[in-house]
Amino acid sequence: LGWKFYDADDYHSPENKMKMAEGIPLSDEDRIPWLCALHDILRREDSSRQDAILACSALKKIYRRILVSGASAIESHQPEQPGENAALQILFVHLHGPMDVIAGRLEKRRGHFMPPELLKSQFDTLEPPSAPENFITVSLEKALPEIVQEIEHAIFQG
Predict the structure, then answer these.
(1) Which Gene Ontology terms of cellular component type are present (predicted)?
(2) What phi and psi values does residue 60 have, to the nearest 5 degrees?
(3) Cα–Cα distance, 16 to 26 (Å, whole number)
(4) Exposed, middle or buried: residue 42 (CB in 10 Å: 0-12, 13-18, 19+)?
(5) In the structure, what pLDDT confidence band is assigned to residue 123 with cuts at 50, 70 and 90?
(6) Which residues contact 132 (CB under 8 A, 6 or more apart)?
(7) Distances 45 to 51, 78, 82, 147 between C-alpha atoms, Å
(8) Residue 136's domain spans which residues?
(9) Are 114 and 20 a contacting pair, CB within 8 Å?
(10) pTM confidence score
(11) How far apart are CA 57 and CA 50, in angstroms?
(12) Terminal C-alpha separation, the chain
């Protein structure tokens, strides 16, 4: 797509990275400053009229709301309405697949601070996207070209 790419893992604090490396799952309190910083990056790109892709494990609905609206999502306890007060237009791509397939891929990853042992905690935390969130669900068991085509179709055909 020629869009700027950000890997959210690059923006974790040293404390978060150390915690994960020790096999300790992150708490909401650990993640919120990280998510706010990611929102700021996306807002900056949006202000520059640049499209961007962010690879991020936005596991909970509140995490995705923070990516869209920043810190104000934490303070707002009102139910979210489609398009209401949304600071950014974000299409969330929920890559869905069985834990054993993901675990196999994590086992092959080298030099990353998150050990495969934390995968279960991520599945336990996961709140799959639902209406009114702007999302698509794509099976990660498809071939990579099919996954990319499905995402591109959702972006451009909406």
Answers:
(1) cytoplasm
(2) -110, 155
(3) 7
(4) buried
(5) confident
(6) 80, 81, 82
(7) 7, 27, 22, 24
(8) 4-157
(9) yes
(10) 0.84
(11) 22
(12) 16
Q: Over the stretch 49-74, which tens digit does the pLDDT of each residue have?
A: 999 999 998 999 999 999 999 988 88
Q: Which amino acid is at 69?
A: S
Tokens of 102: 């993901």
Number of domains in the chain: 1
Please give the Cα distance from 56 to 45 (Å, whole number).
Answer: 16
CATH of the domain at 69: 3.40.50.300
pLDDT in the model for residue 84: 44
Residue 103: is its pLDDT beyond 60?
A: yes
Q: How far apart are CA 118 and CA 105, in angstroms?
A: 13
Residues belonging to the chain: 158
H or E segment and range at residue 107: helix 99-108
User: What gap in Å lies between CA 24 and CA 121, rounded to an integer?
Assistant: 9
Q: Which residues pair with 96 in a beta bridge?
A: 139
Bridge partner residues of 52 (DSSP): 4
| Average per-residue pLDDT for the chain | 87
